């Protein structure tokens, strides 16, 4: 939700409206007519028609034969650019892929992007359950994932409280932590363990572990490494998972440092 109180004084409304149109079309995989878009965006049909024609010309929406509009291929191009920017140097991507290949577990990188916890890179492993939500750019459920917990653990208690109050603690499963008190206790246990964990809190039957890669005074430069595996395997392999993740985290940190020098 956009905060109306945070609206800039120099907001270009035509650009804002075009983005609202694009978002509405993106949420409707079967396509929308101009009238449907106008109704969803609370715009006049005439205004919507001009915005849609502009977006179609630029390739961000496509008009189908039945008159409905769907998302255009330019959006996919922008997403690929986002993924490349998030991934970082080639050595980091190679480290992730090697870890996924050697362990069989999917590995993820995450960091704060615009103040929100986000997944920034993924390498799929064949032994991990497929988690369709955890793709680069995913920025929900920080309280329910080990990746999110590891990043939130770098904040002060007050900063965490404000974060969780703003983004909420949605119950993804019956095991999801939904109170700040239980969440703080869970983070403290993770700190003592040297690895943040979640067992079935984001997806039933799936566990996730995470460790910090790069601490930094600038929160946007903090990076964490996570991996997902079946919950029953985590119960018996936590120490091995931690050892392998710490080794991978050191390699990721070296790759990031090499690019900065």
From TrEMBL:
Superkingdom of this protein's organism: Bacteria
InterPro entries: GAF-like_dom_sf, HTH_MetabolicPath_Reg, Tscrpt_reg_IclR_C, Tscrpt_reg_IclR_N, WH-like_DNA-bd_sf, WH_DNA-bd_sf
GO biological process: glycerol metabolic process; negative regulation of DNA-templated transcription
Tagged with keyword Transcription regulation: yes
Coiled coil: none
Keywords: DNA-binding, Glycerol metabolism, Transcription, Transcription regulation
Annotated GO MF terms: DNA binding; DNA-binding transcription factor activity
TM stretches of this protein: none
Pfam family for this entry, one: HTH_IclR
Domain IclR-ED residue range list: 74-261
Domain HTH iclR-type: 12-73
Job of this protein: May be an activator protein for the gylABX operon.
The name this protein goes by in its record: Glycerol operon regulatory protein
Organism: Micromonospora musae
């Amino acid at each position: 939700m956009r905060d109306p109180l945070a609206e800039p004084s120099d907001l270009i409304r035509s650009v804002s409206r075009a983005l609202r149109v694009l978002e509405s079309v993106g949420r409707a995989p079967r396509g929308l007519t101009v009238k449907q878009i106008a109704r969803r965006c609370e715009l006049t049909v005439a205004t919507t028609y001009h915005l849609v024609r502009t977006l179609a010309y630029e390739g961000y929406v496509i008009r189908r034969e039945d008159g409905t509009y769907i998302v255009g291929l330019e959006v996919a191009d922008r997403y690929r650019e986002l993924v490349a920017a998030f991934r970082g140097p080639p050595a980091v991507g190679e480290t992730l892929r090697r870890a996924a290949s050697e362990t069989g577990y999917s590995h993820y990188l995450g960091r704060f992007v615009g103040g929100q916890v986000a997944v920034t890179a993924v390498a799929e492993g064949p032994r991990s359950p497929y988690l369709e939500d955890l793709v680069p750019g995913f920025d929900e459920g920080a309280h329910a994932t080990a990746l999110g917990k590891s990043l939130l653990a770098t904040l002060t208690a007050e900063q965490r409280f404000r974060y969780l109050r703003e983004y909420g603690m949605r119950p993804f499963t019956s095991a999801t932590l939904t109170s700040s008190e239980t969440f703080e206790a869970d983070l403290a246990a993770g700190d003592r363990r040297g690895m943040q964990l979640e067992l079935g809190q984001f997806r039933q039957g799936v566990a996730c572990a995470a460790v910090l890669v790069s601490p930094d005074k600038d929160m946007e430069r903090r990076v964490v490494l996570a991996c997902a595996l079946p919950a029953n395997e985590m119960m018996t392999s936590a120490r091995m998972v931690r050892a392998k993740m710490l080794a991978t985290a050191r390699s990721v940190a070296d790759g990031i440092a090499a690019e900065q020098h």
